[in-house]
């Protein structure tokens, strides 16, 4: 058997990336292209009462000023992608005078150069009839609504009574800040019309949806729209949905009848491209003196916009993570005058688990039970919410492996009991979990006469290494070397795939590639069997095998033939399509999730309160690891994201007009290289035959989940101060 | 960006002549170009002074002389600066990012504009950018703002780190202008906002910073800069402190203390210095002196923590300088 999956292959696109050969959306400059700049609303709520555009159109290089007064009325046909909120209707741009949130696009200026377009956009005077928006989630007057989508509330037993009667309780509130994704690459779209056909070179994690969405907005058949995006410079979820700037680029290109390039500024990436919603949560735990959970309550509220109900799995982990007969979870939304939030790495789970794992840590100190032991005592045998076994669950194994590598036994239990010189040292741990999702996907394989293979899918690679890992999957199942496989992605001309998010690219696209490869191999075998000159001529299909890159009779390993030899006969390539869905029976029978344990060590300056993360260790049970190098990289990236959540990231709004005041890379803090701690990612051996034929459970999301509470728990251990807001700032420590 | 003309100055005199006519000087451009892109700065005429002979770092007797065009990175790496004025090197390394330090000049560093977010947003009221338009920060988000030297018109902090060190060290600067040359303490370069926050410095029209002179002294060897912030690099100070101590037989002969991140200008703390002079080196003495730092502090809604953090930062910087802990 050809073993390529599991090998630490270096990135097949690495050279292209570091030499500048990789082309990102904004690199696809078109002949004759013009430049569009969005003018963003400078009030948080109200209407545009006047636009003084006459003098702007006369400015140097300006080709058009497009506003709601002169923009075409677009069809905006119904389109609900799986990635869109189930309830509500997307923002329609330049279709009316309403301003729904600060930064909403109210005009576009198109010019012959970016400088001209920016200068004219800045000069455009827009008069507003403005009102004060409501943007503070914590404002007691903000309505809390029950999301229309199902599953907001779940309950088993009587959690409230159980907590009330418990021997030991923790009942606390948690506040997690709004975050913006802030990938390195800004959102960018180049739009070019050719008659009624539209080509978009556009940063997207979900090409098929972008195609369908833009087609629906412009009233076109989907096949009239082509979306191209071979590389993504980080996204973290912000490019899952198709945001208004894509529509605006296409609209502008149509208006000026030239290709148009539109790149958002860093500041604009805080306006209309989604954000992780601020969440307010309450977790109440009841336990026996021995540390057995008797009741768990988890209530959470997330922000959404006034026009869509964005929901995420804020309280979902609490339903299945621990064994407890009485569990009640409740999820609410707070509609605000803001753009619609969207998924950001580890959406919902990452925020929800912070509250749950902080509370559990607090309980461990109250009980005087080691946090790992407390989790061990509450380890469930099955998913008690679904009443199903887990397809695989290695949580305790992760804790054991992580604890050993981290040196958890060196931890002294008392808060404020560990020091390094004058610095306070703290150790903390927390559980990570994320569902093992799957979505139907397709892929195509072409075996060429030279013995190499081309593999195609309309997938994306925002950094996890899709190019490389899919090459490995194809090589493995075709019996080729990775260098003989060319995997291509990033255009809607390739077979459709689901969104590049939710940790389901490998599970879904990888499974489809496997299916396509097996089909191609089957066709090659049939051709060889039919060929009277071949050593397998006339063999029945169950007496032959592929080994060492050759097709041979099981009974006679000495004679065989390669793809090249099979194809040489006619020279015709073999093309096969494959698709993959999850086995519905397995999906019905098992609860499928990844689990992990994250360990953090922090040092805190007792005088000035600076917090430094010294070490992070994550141990994960994620099924089969396709490429340990890529997997490690994904985990360390996720941990850094979790560290940002714990200590730095926060979009600060001015309540008077809803303005994000720190919409700048110098002011919206994320960890820099100097902050990056020593990090280790470990993977337990886990075989899950149920999730999919590849046995992979997905890694991108869980890599962020769990890090923030591990750090917060370490901060408590270091200082004795429990901080229930994220991020934890120096000012929170000063009073410790 | 507004259209502008760019010329390269071939001599200091030519640059100053252009400056007197209203041209703006550009060296590293790390502040100016950034702000021009946002149209906060709208110069019509720029004079590139990078080719003028105003670079270099030299030792003149007890003094270190730093050319106005010397880059931050160059000064931080200079052997004489590290040996004679380690406080300057440390404050530079704590400032900005390596990329910015490679570009930014010392003269430009002192004249860099404030980091108040509202100053940088054209659609927000800002007395510094548009006199008499109002201040968005005082009733807005102001966690990063000053607690000392503020007025009803402005509470933006001066962002430079090295300026804090230079003020603590009694550095002077030499400037040339249409009416000749003059020298004055670096501290006198910075104005308080009062009712005119748009006037940030005391240079006369056309005046060009030529060099910075830093006197030596017994305090320069035991001198440290502590910058407190939520991440390890590339962030302006929440609070910073420069502390220099001259110590004999365990007794403080002279202390120099200045703070950043808390004042509308680099904030020299002479009351703290006086309280330390003659005291035995001890944490208690440091704490007593540091307590005086926040006299007259006027915190805003979100920056009250600085009142607590400032004395703690000073104590810690003094401990580092005194090598106490």
UniProtKB/TrEMBL annotation, chain A:
<dbReference type="InterPro" id="IPR036856">
    <property type="entry name" value="Ald_Oxase/Xan_DH_a/b_sf"/>
</dbReference>
<dbReference type="InterPro" id="IPR016208">
    <property type="entry name" value="Ald_Oxase/xanthine_DH-like"/>
</dbReference>
<dbReference type="GO" id="GO:0016491">
    <property type="term" value="F:oxidoreductase activity"/>
</dbReference>
<dbReference type="InterPro" id="IPR046867">
    <property type="entry name" value="AldOxase/xan_DH_MoCoBD2"/>
</dbReference>
<dbReference type="InterPro" id="IPR008274">
    <property type="entry name" value="AldOxase/xan_DH_MoCoBD1"/>
</dbReference>
<keyword id="KW-0560">Oxidoreductase</keyword>
<feature type="domain" description="Aldehyde oxidase/xanthine dehydrogenase a/b hammerhead">
    <location>
        <begin position="19"/>
        <end position="132"/>
    </location>
</feature>
<dbReference type="Pfam" id="PF01315">
    <property type="entry name" value="Ald_Xan_dh_C"/>
</dbReference>
<dbReference type="InterPro" id="IPR037165">
    <property type="entry name" value="AldOxase/xan_DH_Mopterin-bd_sf"/>
</dbReference>
<protein>
    <submittedName>
        <fullName>Acylaldehyde oxidase</fullName>
    </submittedName>
</protein>
<dbReference type="Pfam" id="PF02738">
    <property type="entry name" value="MoCoBD_1"/>
</dbReference>
<dbReference type="Pfam" id="PF20256">
    <property type="entry name" value="MoCoBD_2"/>
</dbReference>
<dbReference type="InterPro" id="IPR000674">
    <property type="entry name" value="Ald_Oxase/Xan_DH_a/b"/>
</dbReference>
<keyword id="KW-0500">Molybdenum</keyword>
<dbReference type="GO" id="GO:0005506">
    <property type="term" value="F:iron ion binding"/>
</dbReference>
UniProtKB/TrEMBL annotation, chain B:
<dbReference type="InterPro" id="IPR051312">
    <property type="entry name" value="Diverse_Substr_Oxidored"/>
</dbReference>
<dbReference type="InterPro" id="IPR036683">
    <property type="entry name" value="CO_DH_flav_C_dom_sf"/>
</dbReference>
<dbReference type="InterPro" id="IPR036318">
    <property type="entry name" value="FAD-bd_PCMH-like_sf"/>
</dbReference>
<protein>
    <submittedName>
        <fullName>FAD-binding molybdopterin dehydrogenase</fullName>
    </submittedName>
</protein>
<dbReference type="Pfam" id="PF00941">
    <property type="entry name" value="FAD_binding_5"/>
</dbReference>
<dbReference type="InterPro" id="IPR016166">
    <property type="entry name" value="FAD-bd_PCMH"/>
</dbReference>
<dbReference type="GO" id="GO:0016491">
    <property type="term" value="F:oxidoreductase activity"/>
</dbReference>
<dbReference type="GO" id="GO:0071949">
    <property type="term" value="F:FAD binding"/>
</dbReference>
<feature type="domain" description="FAD-binding PCMH-type">
    <location>
        <begin position="1"/>
        <end position="219"/>
    </location>
</feature>
<dbReference type="InterPro" id="IPR016167">
    <property type="entry name" value="FAD-bd_PCMH_sub1"/>
</dbReference>
<dbReference type="InterPro" id="IPR002346">
    <property type="entry name" value="Mopterin_DH_FAD-bd"/>
</dbReference>
<dbReference type="InterPro" id="IPR016169">
    <property type="entry name" value="FAD-bd_PCMH_sub2"/>
</dbReference>
<keyword id="KW-0285">Flavoprotein</keyword>
<dbReference type="Pfam" id="PF03450">
    <property type="entry name" value="CO_deh_flav_C"/>
</dbReference>
<dbReference type="InterPro" id="IPR005107">
    <property type="entry name" value="CO_DH_flav_C"/>
</dbReference>
<keyword id="KW-0274">FAD</keyword>
